[in-house]
């Protein structure tokens, strides 16, 4: 007698591959796309916005202005730049650990965005001036004000990271788990199925 694979079990499915393998592939793919897009936009910003006044777009809703940030948002922690690479390395390690039991594609998207954004800024911290692990992050997008007084100047890596975190919060609020199960709904289905399963077993 064979038993059907349970949700989050890592058993191969008809589509090919295991749920965990597909989720990890999605995570890594999204992270790489976000990282490459961030590096490209930073390169273009350095080529076209350096020594140039802010570029006004969408009637002033968006400005393109090149800045180099040694800290976090609004230059918070700019005197302790070396701390940020360590935090990012910790985040990357946490995502790698989470991938060991990851079977949810929405969570793969979320973690992929966070990973890509974290790696994009980590590259700046490690390799850009003024030195290794104290490099300044290249930012170029400002909302409603060219100098970041309304909202901090940011880059594509920041956007990916924030989008990933927001998606993670939504997944948590809706009970979606990283192993592919869903709190509440899956429990209810199991509870409803129990009498039928018991009756079927009794007939057997």
From TrEMBL:
Per the UniProt record, which residue ranges are transmembrane? 23-45, 82-100, 107-123, 150-173
- Which GO BP annotation is one of this protein's? proteolysis
Which InterPro entries does the record cross-reference, listed alphabetically?
Answer: Peptidase_A8
The source's domain of life comes to Bacteria
* The entry's keywords: Aspartyl protease, Cell membrane, Hydrolase, Membrane, Protease, Transmembrane, Transmembrane helix
Q: Which residues form the active site?
A: 139, 158
Task: State the GO CC annotations.
Answer: plasma membrane
User: According to its UniProt record, which reaction does this protein catalyse?
Assistant: Release of signal peptides from bacterial membrane prolipoproteins. Hydrolyzes -Xaa-Yaa-Zaa-|-(S,diacylglyceryl)Cys-, in which Xaa is hydrophobic (preferably Leu), and Yaa (Ala or Ser) and Zaa (Gly or Ala) have small, neutral side chains
Q: Does the keyword Membrane apply?
A: yes
Q: How does it sit in the membrane?
A: Multi-pass membrane protein
- Record has Transmembrane as a keyword: yes
- Region ranges (Disordered): 180-204
Its biological purpose: This protein specifically catalyzes the removal of signal peptides from prolipoproteins.
Q: Which family does it belong to?
A: Belongs to the peptidase A8 family.
The protein, known as: Lipoprotein signal peptidase
Organism whose genome encodes this protein? Micromonospora halophytica
What is the gene name? lspA
């Amino acid at each position: 007698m064979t038993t059907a694979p349970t949700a989050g079990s890592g058993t191969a499915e008809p589509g090919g591959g295991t749920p965990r393998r597909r989720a990890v592939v999605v995570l890594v793919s999204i992270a790489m796309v976000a990282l490459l897009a961030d590096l490209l936009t930073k390169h273009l910003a350095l080529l076209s916005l350096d020594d140039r006044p802010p570029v006004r777009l969408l009637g002033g809703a968006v400005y393109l202005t090149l800045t180099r940030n040694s800290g976090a948002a609004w230059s918070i922690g700019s005197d302790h730049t070396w701390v940020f690479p360590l935090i990012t390395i910790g985040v990357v390690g946490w995502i790698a650990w989470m991938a060991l039991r990851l079977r949810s594609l929405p969570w793969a998207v979320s973690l992929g965005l966070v990973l890509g954004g974290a790696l994009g800024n980590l590259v700046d911290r490690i390799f850009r001036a003024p030195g290794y692990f104290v490099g300044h992050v290249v930012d170029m997008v400002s909302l409603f004000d060219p100098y970041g007084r309304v909202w901090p100047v940011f880059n594509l890596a920041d956007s990916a990271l924030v989008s990933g975190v927001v998606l993670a919060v939504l997944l948590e609020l809706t009970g979606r788990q990283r192993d592919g199960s869903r709190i509440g709904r899956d429990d209810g289905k199991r509870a409803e199925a129990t009498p039928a399963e018991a009756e079927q077993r009794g007939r057997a």
